[in-house]
Amino acid sequence: MPEFRDATYSGETIAIENDLLLLEVHRRTTGWGWGEVYPKHGSTNRPFAVIEHLGEADVEGYDHPLRMEASEYEREDRMLAFDLKLNTSSCSQGGEPPLTGRLELSLSAEEPCLDYSLRVVPQTQIHLRSLRGIWLRVGAGSFGSEKHDAIFPGVEWLFGDEWSSGTDFFEHPEALRVAPHKVAFPLIAISHRGTGLGLSWNPNQSALSHTTRIRMPQPIFASPNFIDRRSEHLMGLMYPSARWGLKENALKADPPITVPKGLSLDLDARITVVPGKSLDVVLDWIGSHGLPDPGERRYRWEEALERIAEAYDTNLWTEGKGWGLPGKTSTRVPEAVRSYVERGGNPELLDQLRSKIEWARDRPKGTQKNSSRREKADELLSLQTPEGDFPYDPKDRHRTGLSERAELWRPLGQPGDSAVDLVATAAKDLILAGEELQEDRYLRAARKALDFALKFERPEGGDWWETPLRSPNLLAAGDAAVAYYMGYRVFRKDAYLERARHWIRCLLPFTHLWEPPDIAMIYNTKPCLSSTSWFLSDWTAKHVQWEVLSVFARSRELGIDWSEVDAEVDWGRYQEGVTTAVLRWMIDHEDAEWMFRSEFPSEQVEDGEWDGCFCDTFDPVSGTYGGAPIVPEAIVSNILMILGPG
User: Fold this and answer.
1) Owning domain of residue 59
2) Rounded to two decimals, what is the model's pTM?
3) What is the dihedral of CA 414, 415, 419, 425, to 10 degrees?
4) Which of 14, 208, 377, 547 has the smallest count of CB within 10 Å of its CB?
5) How is residue 291 annotated by DSSP?
6) Under a CB-based contact definition with an 8 Å cutoff, are residues 477 and 527 in contact?
7) Is the peptide bond before 180 cis (omega within 30 degrees of 0)?
8) Cα gap 558→554, rounded to integer Å
9) What DSSP string runs through 180-215?
10) Do 209 and 348 sit in the same domain of this protein?
């Protein structure tokens, strides 16, 4: 007997299964039409998710949305097929149904994967408000709205009873993300009591004809299911999408889209169920698909290094002051300059850079490194709690102009709050001090901090100066990964190695591992899934590259090779990907295509003063670069790591 109570049941059930997954498809009194998904690990007596229908269409001229159902089925091994018709029996309109289709449900022989393949064909020209394909009600008929966590890459990372499209880290209208535009890769994951379920799809599938292109399916996510006001979670796919025909975060096209007779509307998806949490679902997806090819580079690596070295010799050099952007110069020799001179290159450029290095050697350098290291470590010892924490202090050391602005609405965090980044960055500095100064008290404090932070699971706190402290954050993932691996090298504690791998993997949900055909954004990253000061920048709507580059630049400084630490993920390709991506962000006033995508007023960039720098932000909807210029040190560090010794 089915557990789901929101469907009529005729008493007929068919099932397909393998050793890991069971699907039961049930017949309504009007035809075959819905199913229940049972994982075979853990508790299997109740469904983990319900497939609400085999398809549903909202067509103009009909009283309400109509389900697609089948009178018969075909079966072959672990595959079920249904020839579908739109059930119009509840409507006053007569005549033949305007839509027919076919659905195939198939289980892998050995993997916990269920494939859903729907083809719908209008029998006449229709005006379509929505076509819903797979529509999963996770927890319906079983655990309801409970969850451990959920990940919608680039959009949401929820824990416990947090709501998707909630105002924990955003205010309206940015908070609404039920049908978003800015998905990082095609997966939605949710977990409950040791089981993770993922819904994935081909984001570039589309319906084609000589007159129409319906671009890409639209993913839908609501946790809990506030769309239907149900104690469960909803994830699904539909046409049209926010990229064409649908207003972002709407569930119906207004006005409806016109679909000609005979145009096949295809919606393919996969349900995967694995032991673990939502990040395990992400890892499973990457294991199945692999990390994507970064694509063609804008510049060859050596050419990029040459361009940056030339910038440090010209527009990023101020005579008598040093290197950097105007007003932010330093006499410290940039790695880009030092490495170019060491590796060799254009003889004329080498001579010019060597003379600048000679000038910098005679300039004062400030306090000695060991003195500043000791002072910083002693300050950290004074701030550490007996438990090992380094709590948030919005009234003093964590106070910024942006946090003060946020408090006019509500604070970014409360005094005494904690997050993994606050603890991990302190632990890293204490380890460096302990090793350099040979003082065990710093190492003991670092170990206490790392032990305290073992309880954290989601990366939080990396942009504490402007975003809600507890919001999901890429920089926090990188900082924690570095700190825990440093701790593992010193203390040889296996739990630290496990956490280092966990935290570096937390970069993945922030990374674009997919791009649409019309805008290059592969390996761009979201810095956090929150807004600045509640009403400023929405960071699910913008990409930022400096943070992910800084993670690998810092890793290089500390001798950490993530490919050796975590062989399950191809971190060499990942680093090549994020570095290839940032080459697109580099400012070049002579590049007409780049200038076309620039958000800067032309007078700011047309004289070449920012050439060689890269931009702070990228808008994935408009395909434009903006924010502020950033000096290219992190680019150089990552390129050198990719090239290796030489």
Assistant:
1) 13-289
2) 0.95
3) 140
4) 208
5) P
6) no
7) no
8) 6
9) -S--SSSEEEEEETTEEEEEEE-TT-EEE-SS-EEE
10) no
